[in-house]
Amino acid sequence: KDVAILVPPYDDVIHVRGLDDDATLFTAMQNAQDDEGKMTFSVLIHEVPLEIIVMSINGVDGYWQILGGGNMQPLPSKAMLNIDSYEPKNNEAVLFRLTKREDHADQEDDCEKNPYRCLNGCVAVNTSFWLLISTILATLTCWGH
Asked: Count of CB atoms within 10 A of residue 141's CB?
């Protein structure tokens, strides 16, 4: 299958051709970087659960919103959190848009529902960290620091 990738400044479409039918967006991006040499990107990989998140494109760090499908709509949160889970269709165009985190406050993975996948800019702290912090403070207080 063939996939078209669009990245800023959007003056050139990166055509990735000859992908396997089950190729993911991550595979298409790797081919665009390795074979075509027309883009570079870096990702953040979490192993459990597997998440591969785009962190930078062509040296620009930020929150990259991914648009695709026939109507160029934002991809589902699952695809945003794991680009290796999204399989573009043959001849699909995928666009990467640099946005601010607060632009995504209405996404389903907000802090109240899942603090470990907080996409809307708020900060969530795991309760075990609070226990660790209070233990350290109590220890330092006992030592007279």
From this structure: 9
